[in-house]
Write a structure and sequence with these properties.
The complex is a heterodimer of chains A (about 260) and B (about 375).
Chain A: E1 2-6, E2 9-11, E3 32-34, H1 36-52, E4 55-61, H2 67-75, E5 80-84, H3 94-108, E6 113-117, H4 128-136, E7 140-151, E8 154-161, E9 164-171, E10 174-178, H5 190-198, E11 202-204, H6 244-255
Parallel strand pairs in A: 1-4, 1-6, 4-5, 5-11, 6-10, 7-10
Antiparallel strand pairs in A: 2-3, 7-8, 8-9
Helix pairs in contact in A: 2-5, 3-4
Chain B: H1 7-24, H2 28-34, H3 39-47, H4 66-79, H5 81-100, H6 103-115, E1 120-123, E2 139-143, E3 146-157, E4 164-170, E5 180-186, E6 192-194, E7 208-219, E8 223-224, H7 230-266, E9 268-269, E10 272-273, H8 278-307, H9 313-343, H10 349-359, H11 366-380
Parallel strand pairs in B: 1-4
Antiparallel strand pairs in B: 2-3, 3-7, 4-5, 5-8, 6-7, 9-10
Classes of the chains: A alpha/beta (about 260), B alpha+beta (about 375).
Chain lengths: ~260, ~375
């Protein structure tokens, strides 16, 4: 089974600060990490490879520094790494990103399965996985918490829901986005680190993926950020006092006008 | 301080640190409380290839030496000495085979030890034989093509969790220490069993039990080295393994220092963080000096041992004494810095203090180490 895992480099959430003037994220001096959900996607791909054979290719769209997370994924068991990188990709929203990733994946060869993290912890949109599936015209399931098996060219899985889970079956090739419950990611191995150190990473730029220049980066994005601001707190706060019964009565009285 | 590690050595540190931070530290309090063996964490260490650090490449290992093991153990010791001990004990059990075993024996056992598929253990101590190894009462008698072992080993680390045991038994009691031999016993051998788990003061997540040999029959070729060479193998094994215990003291001391400084910066008394008071500053400074001095000595000893296999004893004993006495002092001071909170099980330093004590005792008490150093000095100055 040939698996592609799409991973993203994000600022470490432990370290996030906002620039008080611009309200944008201060990236300077902030450590970059692999998006935590993507670590679970890499782990699941490596486990599937260990059980069923095949290869795991990790792919990231980002600046040259994103090479670090590709090497990290290889040290944890991935076989090949592809960096989709070009200045023309800068400023892409999820629409332009899925276009770019889709074009890149068309160049990396046939696959059976694409895995992504549920969402990235910087943008938090959860749109890239499903969007990419649409671009590639393949079925997808998001929030997968367990892969239960393969049958007649289909993959069987559990999709996490608010009140339990769904059992879902989709034909392959397909795309899944995974939640943290799916596994416990391993730490890199010594042999993996050695391999990652010497592995040459394939770099695909805009020309290599034969992309339409108008569909890339900021110009190709349908989302334009007009303003970023911290929401003001407008609600009324009141502390109730007295015994539990008295507090309940006060609460009911307060809520009654709205019923 | 920068110790100018090679790129490969830095990789070992990075992996071991990640295991300590992500896998060991979040679980250590619970494992200690429940006295539970850390099987999953040890499997993670195996998956990361660290069980094979010291095993030559031809047997599936990484081909490193004492220093590489020390680098990994420092991080594990910083995380939890019980988990680190369980890991280190496998090396202690494997060293006799590597040092004195036949080529066939190495090929038979080392690949599984290197991948962590099978864990090893070392069995020397008995009720009447600890520091004085010549008091061993377990016997091995050759009967046709088999050795028959009888006796009981005490306080064996990894007992019940290991599959390969390096066991010391007397093959000729009349010769004293020179009548001791070493054998490989497997957990499935007939007549072999483990006693109940001991209840310990510290390193409670490690497994410590008796090994019981009752007409335990093993094939003739399980003798490690030649008959009567057991005591020499034991001494060489301990010379090689002691820096590993020493570095647990360094890792533990570092953990205690980290907790103490972090706490002293947060804890406010008389309107100021307590780190601004000289009484606390001096304690923290002394802790930092001791930890770094311990690290320097252990690193130097481990590097010395790697290139001078015939001159290991003094360096090995010196670093063990210094770094483990240091760990005891530093962890006691850490409890003092955290004071009332430090005494509570909710904070990690009381466990660190309990764990530190064993480092001064096992793999040769620090008193025995001083004897050894004294004897070596006596030889050197003739």
């Amino acid at each position: 089974m040939n698996i592609i895992v799409c991973i993203k480099q994000v600022p470490d959430a432990k370290d996030v600060r906002l620039d008080p003037k611009t309200n944008t994220m201060a990236r300077e001096g902030v450590e970059s990490i692999m998006n935590p959900f993507d670590r679970h996607a890499v782990e699941e791909a490596v486990r599937l490879k260990e059980q069923h054979g095949g290869t795991v290719t990790v792919l990231s769209m980002g600046p040259p520094q994103a090479e670090a997370i590709l090497r990290e994924a290889v040290s944890c068991g991935a076989d090949e790494a592809v960096l989709v990188s070009d200045r023309a990709f800068a400023g892409a929203d999820t629409w332009a990103t899925t276009y770019t990733l889709g074009k890149a994946i068309e160049k990396t060869g046939p696959f059976d399965l694409i895995l992504c993290g549920k969402q990235a912890i910087d943008g938090d949109t959860a749109q890239v996985g499903p969007g990419l599936a649409k671009r590639l015209n393949i079925p997808y399931v998001s929030c997968v918490r367990k892969i239960t098996g393969f049958e007649n060219g289909a993959i069987l899985l559990h999709r996490l829901m608010d009140d339990g889970y769904d059992e879902v079956e989709i034909p392959l090739p397909g795309l899944l986005t995974v939640v943290k419950e799916i596994n416990e990611p391993r730490v890199p191995s010594l042999k993996g680190k050695m391999k990652a150190k010497s592995l040459s990473i394939r770099i695909l730029n805009a020309e290599a993926i034969e992309a339409d220049p108008d569909s890339l980066g900021l110009p190709g994005s349908t989302t334009q950020v007009v303003k970023v601001f911290a929401p003001e707190f407008k609600g009324e706060r009141a502390m109730l006092e007295g015994t539990v019964d008295e507090q309940v009565e006060q609460l009911v009285n307060k809520l009654e006008p709205y019923l | 301080m920068d110790y100018f590690l090679t790129e490969e050595q830095q990789m070992i540190v990075d992996i071991a640190r990640q295991i300590a931070d992500e896998k060991i530290i979040p679980q250590r309090a619970e494992l200690d409380e429940k006295e539970e063996f850390a099987t999953e964490i040890l499997n993670e260490i195996a998956q990361a290839d660290l069980y094979g650090l010291y095993i030559p490449e031809e047997y599936g290992g990484f081909g490193g030496g004492c220093f590489e093991v020390v680098l990994a153990l420092e991080q594990f010791g910083r995380g939890c000495v019980a988990v680190a001990t369980s890991f280190a004990a496998s090396a202690l059990g494997a060293y006799p085979i590597l040092l004195s075993g036949s080529e066939e024996m190495k090929q038979q056992y080392m690949p599984d030890v290197a991948t962590g598929k099978r864990r090893a253990a070392f069995a020397l101590t008995e009720a009447n034989a600890g520091s004085d190894a010549s008091g061993i009462q377990t016997t091995a008698v050759l009967d046709g093509d088999e050795w028959v072992l009888n006796g009981t080993k005490q306080w064996i680390t990894n007992a019940g969790e290991a599959q390969i045991y390096s066991v010391v038994a007397m093959t000729d009691k009349s010769k004293g220490a020179r009548g001791a031999s070493m054998f490989v016993v497997e957990d499935t051998d007939p007549g072999f069993s483990c006693g109940p788990k001991e209840k310990k003061m510290g390193i409670r997540a490690s497994a410590t039990c008796e090994l019981i040999f009752k007409d335990c029959r093993i094939p003739k070729d399980r003798l490690i080295g030649r008959q009567g060479s057991g005591f020499i193998t034991v001494m060489k094994t301990l010379d090689l393994s002691r820096p590993g215990i020493a570095i647990l003291g360094v890792g533990l001391g570092q953990a205690a220092l980290d907790e103490s400084v972090t706490y002293a910066k947060q804890r406010v008394q008389f309107g100021k963080p307590i780190i601004s008071f000289q009484a606390i500053q001096h304690m923290l400074a002394d802790m930092a000096i001791q930890v770094e001095a311990g690290r320097s000595l252990v690193y130097a000893a481990a590097k010395h041992i790697a290139v001078h296999p015939k001159d290991m004893t003094k360096a090995s004993s010196m670093c063990k004494v210094f770094a483990t006495d240091m760990a005891m002092k530093v962890t006691v001071d850490a409890v003092q810095v955290l004071a009332g909170y430090g005494y509570m099980r909710e904070y990690p330093v009381e466990k660190m203090m309990r764990d530190a004590k064993i480092l001064q005792i096992y793999e040769g008490t620090n008193q025995i180490q001083r004897n050894v150093i004294g004897q070596e000095l006596n030889k050197e100055y003739t």
